[in-house]
């Protein structure tokens, strides 16, 4: 009996990998080689081709691919070690192909798959395994699409033997372990079960019941809004308006973007639900500009809107008999495009076409509905604010429509929080200015903070032309990077006055009204609230903004043409409170300024301003503290251990002797 040992330390593994796109057509030729089944690194170096020995070396060898009939290495040989195995192929003979009648096509072998061969009969670009690609086609390839490696990772040879490399493969020799699988007795375990196609309904039902399947949820349409006079306005209930012409009651609708930005659909205005919509339009002609039903005419949005103050006041049987307080005519306020020169009007301005500037004047650029409410008592006041201005023809513009609900009571003392007590994600960072005063002989510090969120810490943003126009609030735990540009003239960089004005403009764009603390130039006068519910009289709850470079005032002390080009805010926050309801607070903020040289080779150039903000969690783990062990003070009576004391033992002994002495005489007498 022979014992075949399939364990060796050094073996030669042959793997086929794409090497270069240059591939020659493989030809089967007579070949013989002396190759051990388990060869070392030195034994795999020489290969005999047509009687000539070719040294492989460590580089590429011009070989031809020969396919083996068996996937695993043959083990029928009586000796596996130090045995020469000769593989030969029959000589080529000239044959003539016989036409074959069309039959059922046979599926190709899974090992011959080529995932990048998507089109049959045509060479697919960079698909090196495509048999339709000729040698000249492959020369145009820039790379080869990767193909998955087949076979088990433990096999000695994953690929079929490659004795000559006249193809796109390269021979790689490696030593990855002590053991490998020379022959797999059950290779089917590495393949999926090839199921038969289903031809009956019963088979389909049996197959689908074996696996869980996804089912689409049943989508129910929202109920139709019905006007009810039995309940007051509540959150989410439609705001109803009255049409004097038809005597009907309907909901107030505003344009809404749906799939596109052209606002082809509408949305119902609902009680206590603030909403904002932006529609993209373009004026193409004079007629559209002066059309009374055009979206450029403010009358379409604001005129003759009668709001129902409360459904409880409506007599649905006879609407005309409803009390006077049940209906309210919406006021109309017209403002310029920049928000100035606002005045109440009875009729909206009609858009007119200006031939000189080729623009539409008094076009409705924005609309804002403001409803003042008093909870369930209903709407106390309604206002339609129009923003009008000139609009060039043949240019797209964004028409913004807002719906805002406000309390009827005085909101001057109202302050928008960003959390209670800690910050909430997505809420703006609250900033304020440090104020110092002396009350008597005591120095007092407080923080002046605005109730307008737009005055808080923000980043500049770009308009559609890429220029810095407007700003965006810094929101808690939201990392943001913005970039915008400003126009710079060549004369401004050449003169000291123009350069100083440019520095002030850049500082205004980046920091707004924030200024440098003169007592400490490495800080700003503005502070950031550590909590979402700040207190102006607690300066310790406010975080200073540190600068990475010294500045004296809002003019950065750097010579021209170097200009301030951006800032990076790094915000440190930490969790506090119980694990069940953790809160977040800001513990530090650092501003890193950046600058660059601005050179204008032409009359005008554009300078880029880049700003960013990054939040970093620096929370510390909870510290386990254990209370000291209590001191146990036990007080026992003095005679608690008397039965076990030496004195007690002596008394007991005397009593026993007395009893014994009395007992023995008694017995003798008896």
From TrEMBL:
Signal peptide: 1-16
Keyword set, alphabetical order: Cilium biogenesis/degradation, Glycoprotein, Signal
InterPro entries recorded: TCTN1-3, TCTN1-3_dom, TCTN1-3_N
Coiled-coil stretches: none
Any one of the GO BP annotations: cilium assembly
Tectonic-1-3 N-terminal domain sequence ranges: 110-197
Domain of life: Eukaryota
GO CC entries: ciliary transition zone
Keyword Glycoprotein appears in the UniProt entry: yes
Residues annotated as domain Tectonic-1-3: 232-394, 418-618
Family of this protein: Belongs to the tectonic family.
Listed PANTHER family: TECTONIC (PTHR14611:SF2), TECTONIC FAMILY MEMBER (PTHR14611)
The protein, known as: Tectonic-1
Lineage: Eukaryota, Metazoa, Ecdysozoa, Arthropoda, Hexapoda
């Amino acid at each position: 009996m022979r014992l075949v040992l399939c364990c060796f330390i050094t073996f030669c593994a042959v793997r086929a990998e794409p090497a270069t796109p240059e591939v020659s057509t493989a030809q089967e030729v007579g070949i013989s080689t002396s190759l051990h089944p388990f060869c070392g690194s030195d034994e795999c170096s020489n290969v005999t081709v047509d009687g000539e020995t070719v040294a492989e070396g460590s580089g590429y060898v011009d070989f031809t691919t020969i396919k083996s009939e068996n996937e695993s290495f043959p083990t029928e040989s009586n000796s596996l070690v130090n045995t020469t195995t000769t593989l030969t192929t029959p000589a080529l003979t000239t044959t003539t192909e016989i036409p074959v009648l069309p039959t059922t096509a046979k599926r190709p072998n899974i090992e011959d798959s080529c995932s990048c061969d998507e089109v049959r009969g045509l060479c697919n670009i960079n698909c090196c395994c495509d048999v339709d690609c000729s040698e000249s086609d492959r020369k145009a390839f820039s790379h080869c699409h990767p193909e998955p490696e087949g076979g088990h990772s433990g096999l000695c040879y994953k690929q079929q033997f490659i004795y000559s490399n006249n193809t796109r493969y390269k021979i790689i020799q490696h030593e990855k372990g002590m053991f490998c699988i020379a022959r797999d007795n059950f290779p089917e375990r590495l393949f999926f079960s090839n199921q038969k196609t289903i031809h009956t309904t019963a088979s389909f039902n049996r197959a689908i019941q074996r696996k869980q399947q996804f089912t689409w949820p049943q989508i129910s349409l929202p109920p139709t809004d019905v006007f009810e006079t039995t309940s007051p306005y509540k959150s989410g209930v439609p705001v109803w308006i009255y049409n004097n012409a038809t005597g009907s009651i309907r909901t107030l609708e505003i344009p809404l973007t749906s799939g596109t930005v052209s606002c082809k659909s509408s949305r119902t205005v609902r009680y206590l639900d603030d909403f904002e919509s932006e529609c993209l339009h373009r004026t193409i002609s004079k007629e559209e500009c002066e059309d009374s039903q055009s979206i450029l005419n403010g009358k379409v949005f604001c005129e003759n809107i009668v709001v129902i103050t409360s459904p409880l006041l409506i007599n649905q049987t006879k609407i005309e008999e409803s009390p006077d307080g049940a209906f309210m005519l919406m006021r109309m306020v017209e403002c310029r495009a920049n928000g100035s020169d606002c005045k109440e009007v009875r009729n909206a301005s009609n858009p007119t076409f200006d031939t000189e500037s080729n623009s539409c004047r008094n076009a409705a650029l924005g609309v804002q509905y403001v409803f003042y409410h008093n909870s369930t008592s209903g709407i106390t006041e309604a206002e339609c604010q129009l923003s009008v201005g000139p609009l060039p023809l043949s240019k797209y513009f964004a028409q913004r429509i807002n719906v805002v609900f406000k309390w009827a009571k005085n909101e001057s003392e109202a302050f928008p929080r960003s959390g209670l007590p800690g910050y909430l994600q997505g809420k703006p960072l609250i900033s304020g200015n440090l104020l110092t005063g002396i009350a008597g002989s005591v120095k007092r510090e407080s923080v002046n903070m605005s109730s307008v969120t737009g005055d808080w810490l923000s980043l500049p943003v770009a308009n559609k032309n890429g220029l810095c126009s407007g700003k965006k609030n810094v929101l808690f735990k939201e990392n943001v990077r913005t970039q915008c540009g400003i126009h710079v003239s060549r004369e401004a960089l050449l003169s000291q006055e123009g350069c100083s004005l440019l520095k002030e403009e850049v500082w205004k764009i980046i920091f707004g009204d924030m200024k440098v603390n003169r007592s400490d130039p490495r800080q700003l006068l503005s502070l950031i609230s550590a909590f979402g519910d700040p207190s102006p009289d607690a300066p310790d709850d406010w975080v200073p903004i540190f600068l990475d470079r010294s500045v004296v005032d809002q003019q950065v002390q750097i010579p021209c043409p170097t200009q301030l080009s951006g800032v990076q805010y790094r915000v440190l926050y930490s969790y506090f409170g119980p694990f069940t309801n953790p809160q977040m607070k800001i513990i530090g903020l650092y501003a890193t300024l950046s600058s660059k040289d601005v050179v204008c080779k032409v009359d005008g150039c554009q300078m880029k301003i880049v700003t960013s903000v990054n939040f970093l969690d620096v929370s510390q783990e909870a510290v386990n503290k254990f209370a000291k062990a209590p001191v146990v003070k036990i007080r026992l009576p003095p005679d608690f251990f008397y039965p076990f004391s030496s004195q007690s033992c002596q008394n007991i002994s005397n009593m026993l002797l007395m009893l014994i002495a009395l007992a023995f005489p008694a017995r003798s007498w008896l």
